[in-house]
Amino acid sequence: MSQEILEGIHISDSNRTSILLASWFCFTGFLLDYENAEAKSIEYLRDFLNSSSTSLGNMKAESLISQYYHPKLEDDIAHMIFKDALVLLEYGSNYKVAQNLKAYELELNSGVVKNESEFQAEQLARLLNAKLSTPYTLNTYGHILSQNILSTRKRIQRASSDNSKQKTPIRFEGIEEGIPNRGIQSFFRSNYRVHINLSAIADNKANIMISVNAIIISVLISLLSYRNIAETHPQYILPVVIFIFTGLASLIFAVLSARPKITYPNKNVVDKNIQKRNIIFFGSFVTMKLDRYEEIMDEVFREDHLIYGNMIRDMYNLGKVLDKKYQSLVISYNIFMIGFALTVLTFLATLFL
Asked: For the range 178-184, what are the long-range contacts, defined as Cβ-Cβ under 8 Å and sequence gap of 24 or more?
């Protein structure tokens, strides 16, 4: 921050050097001795200057560092610029980040945890006391301080309002404030499309297994009863029986995958607050009277967290259904693959051995 201000103000090289040195070493003392940071910072500055080959003066830099720990009015231009740099570092464009870091620092080093309204009130008091000394910084950065004062006052009002209501946070409430509405719609639209496509793929694969197994089993049963094959070619009975049983097992799991299942989660529920949480799926409302359904939907549409909560729970339930579908489908394909391989191997063994 000091470098940025120095680019807009013309001062002597000695003052410029002192300001930069003070900026580099002002906070180094906190690294090793938090309670005695001023002395450590000055000590590091002296060590640096003593080890430097240049003949840099350090008295002005030490005075500037002390100004941070013991603020006082100074008419010297170097002190004014350095003071403005410190003010803008803490209350400038990165004020929100610096504010959060200061809260963490206070909590870690002193163990003091303040609520939002108390902390923001202290920050507002410091902001109101923060003054810019040079005309350049006042004209260039003064509006930032004003904006931060207004935003801090709004945070205090919001925190005070929340504390007075003692409101328990509700899931999915107010998410439109943080995410554009179009982005939320795109998220749900793409997720529903993916879930529906995956369900259609699972049903198609299940239909394939049902058709293939049903046809092959029908043919094999007909073959077994044709011209008394058990007496004419008994060596073929074993591979045929193997595939009939494995094909039947594969067909059963394929049917389980494609079989529709309807649940009625709100059938015996009378609490409207519970009914409002699961209202999208048709099994949740077909047992309701029309007036009850309209009343619940009216309340859902008036509260955004209920809309998004219902959609999220519906997507979760769709995922659970897909999980069961694909588990049954995987078992069906595995049984078919193993049964078909055993059938072929058994047939070859009986044919050539």
From this structure: 184/308
Question: How many Å apart are CA 112 and CA 172, to the nearest integer?
Answer: 31
Report d(CA 104, CA 92) in Å as an integer: 19
As a residue count, the chain comes to 353
Instruction: Read off the pLDDT of residues 196-210 as tens digits, 9 standing for 90 and up.
Output: 999 999 999 999 999
Amino acid identity, residue 344?
A: V
The DSSP letter of residue 169 is P
Residue whose C-alpha is closest to residue 336's, from 215, 201, 231: 215
Token pair, residue 27, equals 């906070």
Q: In angstroms, what is the C-alpha Rg of the chain?
A: 38
pTM (global) more than 0.90: no
Q: What is the DSSP string of 173-201?
A: TTGGGTS-HHHHHHHHHHHHHHHHHHHHH
Please, which residues have CB within 8 angstroms of residue 119's CB and are 6 or more apart in sequence?
103
